[in-house]
Design brief:
The protein is an all-alpha fold. Helices cover 78% and strands 0% of the residues.
C-alpha cells in the first residue's frame, strides 16, 4: 500500500499542520468546527510517537536498502515512547543493522533488549534474534551460550530456510567441537536437506563434507 507508506512517512507533519489549522479554526469559529482537525492532529501525532514508522523500515530491509532503514530509525527521536511490541521490533532492527555493520557489541546489546521486551510485532523475530545472538556467542568462543541460544531459536521458529540451515549447521559445528559425531552428522543432514543457497554457507558445507564423511558412525 504505497499510500499508507506515504502517510506514515509524513504523518507527524500532517498532524502538526492539522493542529495549526485546528487552532486557527477554533480561534475564529469555535471549538466544534475545529474538532475534526483536532482529532486528526491527535491521531497523527500520537500515532507517530507510539507506533512509529516501523512499517517503512521493514520495506527498506526487504529491498536490502540498509542506509534507508537507518535513516528511518534515526527519525524515531524517542524510542522509549513506542508501545512495547513496536519497541521490541525497533531494537531487533537496530541489532540487525549493527550486524550488517559488523558492530557485534552493539548488535548483541540491541538484540538482547528486543528479547527482554518480548512480544515483537515482527513475524518470527524471536527465533531470528536468538539465532543471531547464538552466532555472536560462538564468534566470541562462548560455545555454551551459543548452543543455548541456537537451540532456543530452533524451538521458537526461524522464518526462512536459509536461517534454518544456518542454525542446523552451527549445531553441527557445536557437536563436532564436542566430538559427538552422530549428533553432528544428524544436524549436517538437516542442513543439506534445506538446500541453502547463501554462498558462504554453501562453501562451509562443502568444507565440512570433506571432513565429516571420513568420520565413522
Amino acid at each position: 500500500m504505497k499510500w499508507l507508506n506515504t502517510f506514515i512517512k509524513y504523518r507527524l507533519w500532517i498532524g502538526l499542520v492539522a493542529l495549526a489549522g485546528a487552532i486557527a479554526v477554533n480561534f475564529y469559529a469555535g471549538f466544534w468546527p475545529s474538532f475534526i482537525l483536532y482529532f486528526i492532529a491527535v491521531i497523527c501525532i500520537v500515532g507517530h510517537f507510539l507506533i512509529g514508522p516501523l512499517r517503512l523500515i521493514q520495506v527498506y530491509i526487504e529491498e536490502g536498502d540498509f542506509d534507508g532503514a537507518r535513516k528511518v530509525l534515526d527519525s524515531i527521536w524517542f524510542p522509549g515512547l513506542l508501545i512495547k511490541p513496536v519497541r521490541s521490533a525497533y531494537y531487533a532492527v537496530k541489532g540487525q543493522l549493527a550486524m550488517v555493520s559488523q558492530n557485534t557489541d552493539e548488535a548483541e546489546k540491541h538484540l538482547k533488549k528486543s528479547l527482554d521486551l518480548g512480544g515483537t510485532m515482527m513475524k518470527d523475530a524471536e527465533g531470528a534474534n536468538k539465532l543471531q545472538l547464538g552466532m555472536l556467542a560462538l564468534q566470541k568462543g562462548d560455545w555454551k551460550s551459543g548452543e543455548n541460544y541456537i537451540r532456543q531459536a530452533i524451538r521458537a521458529g526461524i522464518p526462512d530456510k536459509e536461517g534454518q540451515a544456518m542454525a542446523y549447521f552451527q549445531m553441527c559445528q557445536i557437536y563436532m567441537n564436542k566430538r559427538e559425531f552422530r549428533a553432528a552428522k544428524d544436524f549436517f543432514r538437516k542442513t543439506k536437506a534445506l538446500k541453502p543457497t547463501t554462498p558462504q554457507l554453501v562453501d562451509q558445507i562443502k568444507q565440512m563434507e570433506k571432513y565429516i564423511t571420513r568420520i565413522p558412525g
